[in-house]
């Protein structure tokens, strides 16, 4: 992954949907994952498609929790 820092910031309201997902940040967190019509995903930071795919590849965003792992509910 490119080590160049990029920031994505909203300048207008964009509609989207909320999907259930799990964020693995040391612990596992069940979250409502906002996905916007313009393609951005809010996985505790705004990500465009390439950045989101990178988070998927590293396991930061996942759809399962390994057997025996604890899960926390983090709904915002």
Structure description:
The protein has 76 residues and is mainly beta. It has one domain (16-74). Helices cover 13% and strands 39% of the residues. The chain contains 1 helix and 6 strands. The protein has one helix at 49-58; strands spanning 16-25, 27-36, 41-42, 46-47, 61-62, 71-74. The strands form 2 sheets. A 4-stranded mixed sheet has the order 5-1-2-6. It has a two-stranded antiparallel ribbon with strand order 3-4. Strand 1 (16-25) and strand 2 (27-36) form a beta hairpin. The longest helix has 10 residues, at 49-58. The protein is globular.
List keywords for this structure.
76 residues; 6 strands; mainly beta; two-stranded antiparallel ribbon
Q: What would a concise description of this structure say?
A:
The protein is built from one helix and six strands, in the order ββββαββ.
* Helix/strand structural class: mainly beta
Task: Give the amount of beta strand, in percent.
Answer: 35-45%
Order of strands, widest sheet:
5-1-2-6
Mean pLDDT: 86
- Helical content stands at 10-25%
Determine the N-to-C terminus distance: 28 Å
Q: What is the topological layout?
A:
Blueprint: E1 16-25, E2 27-36, E3 41-42, E4 46-47, H1 49-58, E5 61-62, E6 71-74
Parallel strand pairs: 2-6
Antiparallel strand pairs: 1-2, 1-5, 3-4
